[in-house]
Design a protein that fits this description.
heterodimer; A: about 325 residues; alpha/beta; TIM Barrel; eight-stranded parallel beta sheet; 13 helices; about 10% strand; globular; disordered N terminus; B: about 800 residues; Aldehyde Dehydrogenase, Chain A, domain 1; Aldehyde Dehydrogenase, Chain A, domain 2; 3 domains; ten-stranded mixed beta sheet; 28 helices; about 40% helix
């Protein structure tokens, strides 16, 4: 695959108004040339958070920023409209007013990046979030296992978009990875992309099931080639979810895709990110590997449900100097 | 900056490691460092101190005692006095002390790390996460070796008093590498840190004091080169271990020549970082960061020559230049920097000079731009492209954050360029193809090869170089041999008899019926006349002139070395194949045993029975060497990483052997056979007395499938040939049995190219002794240990 230098850096830089990824033709030769060295990736990942750190004011600012990346998520069998409404309220007001005042950031109008739910809850969420800019994301295509027929997957996307979802988190067919059907994944994701229309498509790789980093990189590339707006690690249901090493593999693919096409693909680590410190580590990774442009909600999200609580506690600690307690912060 | 602003800029801000505790520690010492001798803090005899500054901000840290000969003298006396008891308290007791040191280092790890950074200028991340943990690990690991010494090295003894001189780039880590094995094996130590970096050595001495290490076991002498020289020249020191520049290493080799001091040198390097087209290039980029921008590139094994396969060179260069833009140079205590301060203004000037030289020779400069400092010695990470192997910067060590990039076309060419260096310390090989990686690694002349990783160290694996990068290993079992000796070696008698000059009679034996026998030199598998056209007479035991041997000279040595080089395939032959050839030599010698016995009788006047048993024993030795050929195996180290470390035993290369005069035919055979069994090619100078046996012997070599050039025999004037061999730059190892003066000459002249020397200092080996001849000493000197690090993970 040849690099098209001319398209590099051409993209309009206005925040939130990136060119959507139109995709590029499938290139099996390129996919087959990908080799990722697990040990080397792990070594680099291990020093990402030891080479950079943020303290005090900077830490507080970074944690506030982290909130804006959160796809506040509930994906459980016992989700109800009541639960989803609570979630949406938390998304609109993720940090208490006193805390925001103490930090002098009330006018930043901090909300979470999105609310992420199953199809059945889209309507509730859209209604609850009316009047805000917070998009509703819906998981789709037979989430989490993706073992449904393609037409059903496509109609699920269409239905969700019709319900008002602005973002669709699809799962790729892992079975096709193990059988080497990269073309099949490309075709499927491309079809999903078309079905999404104006809604953004996040492709979940389920990295915890892909066995090797080389598979993760290949899957990242196939999804980007097929037109993904975001690539996302996990459903949250695999035994291993978002890790720094797997993220490194994916963001390196994003970087190279950008160099090749001039198109910026977003990244969403999901699952297992529960602590403020972890969030900062992921943000350092994004800044170091991709740059500040990727530290914006339209290019970076956390799929997380309990992260916000820890961030609130850390913010309170920043303000008071005293370690906080969960019950002092509103739940979703 | 307000939170709101930071929310937009998303900068890291500053985060500096607090140095209050370290500053307090310095203040408690009145910012003055003294020697630690015989368990006491001691002011310098000179009463002089010099300044030591933090290179990151030029702030004064301490006044450092200016050590002198008198100080060293006291330290050596203390160390000598303590040594016997230190060994006699036993391995378990020593293990407990080393264990206590390891624990104390962990307990005070942050103080050690901050002090190291203040003193040396390296990033706090590195001293905290790399240096100090490795130090603790080194003492833990060697506590274990102390514990099991009596069983693992039961025929060995400590050397005695060890003088250790360490560099400034990893002050405490190099101390650990030196001190831990020395103490574990029952030696006592006089250590001198580099003049720029004494702080952590002083804290280490405090730790030794706190744990009650017996006085005199560890002695610390501070100071500059003068103190180092006093250690090197002290005649009651048994071994010198040095890490530093090749230039100083060469001076030490010369200064210790002939003294009988054991020596290990860990010197400079210009290590290749080889990237094949199938490598994971993003990971390669991080590997390069760790290779050359770790510790400001002030690393002896820094991957300072980047060799890229042409097909990926542009892509990799782009990635690397992009990555460099993210590297931050700044205050060493900052937690948000990648590159700290250069050790000293003098070093900084040298780096600038080298880069300017590179540019004047046509190199293009790419430099990192994130500079975050005011005062101090800093230099940005630098990549030089448009460099060719012939460029000065591709050949000479810069010892700074400067990478010289070149390209290659094939694995063979990569190896060729990598080996196109006087150094041979380390290399890094990046390929996702295990066939390529494991093919290339053994072909690179370097003591350490990292596959798909770089600059990884561990106490369990030996570290050290080939060629002018020095000799000896530090770490692992292989490193311990630098601090012990075979017990029998200490009991050898001295050769008091002057070498017998064969000035006996000029009367030629009258054996009219025999056909004149013309002994020749044996070079490249052929019998050749000496270049000089002269011969030397050979006499029998009764002094009768019985024959002539050729008088070999410089040119014959030159030809022999060239022939040895052409026989390089012998080193790559399978060990089974080499064993077969050796067995065949034994077989053919057996068929002519009577003839050789007769010759021994004739030359030495030995009784027939003794001569016969000498031949038998020689055959036995050949069998032993053949037996070991496929059994003197490498080891697999188990460092605490997901890495398998292969300690491969490789042949040294071309070994010159000046055979023992007193050893006779048996001595000749006993020295040659282990060397060739391990894959070396030899250039042998037989003793005058056995010369005719050696020339008889080549007929056996000719019939035993020994490839041409593997064994080359040059007869003639021993001392002159020794001199020529020692000065030959293409000989890798030198074994010498002869006089003390000859031994000194060999060590002295070998300094130019850092040949691995093994000399007898005029001591007599017992060539009939199984204890001596069957010990691994011959095999050990026949090999270099290369550690190949192979990380894995599907």
């Amino acid at each position: 695959m040849s690099t098209n230098e001319n398209t590099t850096n051409k993209t309009a830089q206005t925040s939130g108004h990136e060119l959507r990824n139109p995709g590029i033709p499938f290139d099996l030769g390129f996919i087959n040339s990908i080799n990722i060295n697990r040990s080397a990736v792990e070594r680099r990942a291990a020093t990402i958070a030891t080479r950079r750190t943020v303290k005090k004011q900077h830490q507080a600012a970074w944690l506030l920023k982290a909130i804006t990346f959160i796809d506040l998520t509930t994906l459980a069998g016992d989700d109800t409209p009541g639960k989803v409404k609570r979630l949406c309220q938390k998304a609109k007001q993720p940090v208490s007013k006193e805390l925001l005042e103490a930090l002098d950031v009330t006018d930043l109008n901090i909300t979470t990046g999105a609310v992420c739910v199953y199809h059945n809850m889209i309507n509730t969420a859209v209604t609850a979030l009316a009047g805000t800019n917070i998009p509703v994301a819906a998981v789709s295509t037979g989430f989490p296992a993706g073992q449904s027929p393609l037409p059903i997957k496509l109609s699920e996307i269409t239905a969700s978009v019709n319900e008002g979802a602005k973002e669709i988190d699809i799962v790729i067919s892992r079975e096709k990875i193990f059988t080497g059907d990269w073309q099949g994944i490309y075709d499927e994701v491309k079809a999903f992309r078309t079905a999404c229309g104006n809604a953004h498509i996040k492709t979940i790789l389920a990295t915890g099931e892909l066995a090797t980093f080389t598979n993760v990189a290949k899957a990242s590339w196939v999804c980007m080639m097929a037109g993904a707006d975001f690539i996302k690690t996990s459903t949250g249901k695999e035994p291993v979810n978002a890790t720094l090493p797997v993220s490194l593999v994916m963001v390196r693919a994003i970087r190279e895709y950008y160099q090749l096409t001039g198109i910026k693909i977003g990244y969403k680590p999901a699952g297992g990110i529960q602590k403020a410190k972890q969030a900062i580590e992921f943000m350092i990774l994004m800044k170091e590997e991709l740059g500040n442009e990727w530290l914006e909600p339209h290019l970076f999200r956390f799929g997380a449900s309990s992260l916000l609580g820890d961030i609130e506690r850390q913010l309170e600690h920043h303000v008071t100097g005293c370690y906080s307690a969960s019950h002092r912060h509103a739940i979703s | 900056m307000s939170i709101k602003e930071i929310f937009t800029t998303m900068e890291y801000g500053t985060a500096s490691e607090n140095s209050d505790v370290a500053q307090q520690w310095l203040a408690n010492l009145d910012n003055t460092f003294n020697h630690y001798v015989n368990g006491k803090w001691q002011k310098p005899a000179s009463k002089k101190y010099f300044d030591s500054n933090n290179p990151a901000n030029n702030v004064h840290i301490a006044n450092v005692a200016d050590g002198s000969t008198e100080d060293v003298e006291q330290a050596v006396i203390a160390a000598r006095k303590a040594q016997k008891e230190w060994f006699n308290i036993g391995g378990h007791a020593r293990a407990k002390f080393l264990y206590a040191i390891a624990r104390q280092i962990q307990k005070h790890s942050r103080l050690f790390a901050v002090l190291e950074t203040l003193d040396n200028g390296k990033p706090i991340r590195e001293s905290r996460d790399i240096d100090i943990p490795l130090v603790a690990r080194h003492f833990y690991h060697h506590a274990g070796w102390a514990q099991i010494m009596s069983t693992e090295f039961k025929d060995f003894e400590p050397l005695g008093v060890v003088g250790q001189i360490i560099p400034w780039n990893f002050p405490l880590l190099m101390l650990a590498w030196k001190v831990a094995p020395a103490l574990a094996m029952g030696n006592t130590v006089v250590l001198k840190p580099a003049e720029f970096t004494s702080a952590t050595a002083v804290l280490f001495a405090q730790v030794c004091d706190e744990i009650g290490l017996p006085k005199g076991v560890f002695n610390l002498i501070l100071g500059d080169g003068k103190a180092g020289q006093a250690i090197v020249e002290h005649d009651d020191i048994d071994k010198i271990a040095f890490t530093g520049s090749t230039q100083v290493g060469r001076m030490i080799r010369k200064a210790t020549a002939g003294t009988g001091k054991k020596l290990s040198l860990e010197l400079g390097g210009k290590s290749a970082f080889i990237v094949f087209e199938d490598a994971d290039l993003d990971s390669v980029v991080e590997g390069i960061v760790d290779a050359i921008w770790f510790n400001q590139g002030q690393v002896c094994c820094a991957g300072s020559r980047l060799l890229m396969q042409e097909s990926i060179a542009d892509k990799l260069t782009d990635k690397l230049v992009t990555r460099m833009k993210k590297l931050v140079v700044g205050d060493s205590l900052s937690k948000n920097i990648d590159v700290g301060a250069i050790i000293d203004a003098s070093q900084l000037a040298k780096i600038k000079e080298m880069v300017a030289l590179g540019v004047s020779e046509g190199a293009t400069v790419h430099q990192a731009s994130c500079i975050d400092y005011k005062d101090g010695c800093f230099y940005p990470p630098t990549l030089l492209t448009d460099v060719e192997p012939a460029s000065t910067i591709a050949q000479q060590e810069i010892f700074g954050p400067v990478l010289a990039a070149m390209t290659f076309r094939s694995p063979a060419e990569a190896v060729q360029i990598a080996n196109n260096s006087r150094y041979g310390l380390a290399a890094s090989v990046w390929s996702e193809n295990i066939n390529v990686a494991l093919d290339v690694a053994p072909k690179i002349k370097a003591g350490v090869v990292w596959i798909n990783c770089t600059n990884i160290f561990d106490a369990s694996a030996g570290f050290g170089g080939y060629r002018e990068s020095g000799f000896g290993r530090e770490g692992g079992k292989e490193g311990l041999y630098e601090y012990i000796q075979e017990s029998w070696l200490t009991k050898l008698s001295t050769n008091s008899s002057k070498s017998k000059e064969n000035k006996k009679t000029t009367k030629k034996a009258s054996t009219p019926l025999s056909i004149d026998q013309t002994a020749k030199l044996f070079i490249g598998g052929k019998q050749v006349r000496p270049d000089s056209g002269y011969s030397l007479p050979v006499y029998d035991a009764s002094g009768t002139h019985i024959a002539e041997i050729p008088e070999g000279s410089r040119k014959d040595i030159r030809n022999a070395v060239e022939a040895a080089n052409k026989a390089a395939t012998w080193s790559g032959a399978t060990s089974h194949n080499r064993a077969q050839v050796l067995y065949f030599i034994a077989e053919n010698l057996q068929t002519r045993a009577t003839e050789f016995a007769q010759r021994i009788c004739q030359l030495t006047g030995k009784p027939v029975k003794d001569a016969e048993s000498e031949v038998d024993l020689a055959i036995n030795r050949i069998f032993s060497a053949a037996a070991w050929a496929d059994k003197y195996e490498g080891q697999i180290h188990i460092p605490p990483h997901r890495i398998v470390t292969l300690a491969m035993k490789e042949s040294v290369g071309n070994i010159a052997i000046v055979a023992p005069e007193e050893g006779g035919f048996l001595g000749l055979i006993s020295t040659i056979m282990p060397a060739i069994a391990m894959g070396n090619r030899v250039i042998v100078v037989p003793s005058r007395e056995t010369a005719l046996l050696a020339t008889d012997f080549y007929q056996i070599l000719n019939t035993s499938d020994v490839p041409a050039g593997v064994i080359n025999i040059i007869t003639g004037d021993r001392e002159a040939l020794t001199d020529t061999l020692a000065k030959h730059y293409d000989i890798d190892g030198f074994w010498y049995w002869g006089t003390a003066e000859g031994s000194k000459l060999v060590e002295l002249e070998s300094a130019a190219t850092m040949k691995r020397t093994w000399v007898n200092h005029g001591k007599l080996y017992d060539w009939t002794s199984d204890e001596q001849m069957n010990s691994e000493i011959f095999l050990r000197h026949s090999v270099e240990i290369k550690n190949v690090w192979v990380p894995y993970g599907a």
